[in-house]
Input
Amino acid sequence: MVGVFDVYPNDLIEKAAEELKKVSEIKPPEWAKFVKTGVHKERPPADPDWWYKRVAAILRTIYARGPIGVSKLRTKYGGKRRRGHKMPHHRKGSGSVIRKALQQLEKAGLVEQSKDKLRKGRIITAKGKSFLDKIAIGLLKKQK
Output
């Protein structure tokens, strides 16, 4: 069976971002055009569709690593903070961006909170799995 792991992640995220634009629950907040994606960045993203790409990347990450929480996602989307002539240090990404993206994915029904008390975090729903699997199948058919 063809799945998410059979296609290149960047291709999957690009195509999923295009499909997420059609979902009414997922849209960038008003502040999204001004905000940096983390303290390690100097400027906001130049791509006007960065919100959809980040939501698609988070959805794929939840598919691959779920259940996963905001803290682990902040670490994943963090980076090196440049400190002039001093050594760079890793800093976490923006928690607000990730929380809002997860809330929108929950509202769309693609992810849900885990009910397991030992493994807290977000998990992907059946609707979310089929959403990503259909995109992966389409990408594989297009490659052949």
Summary: The helical segments are 9-20, 50-65, 70-76, 95-108, 126-143.
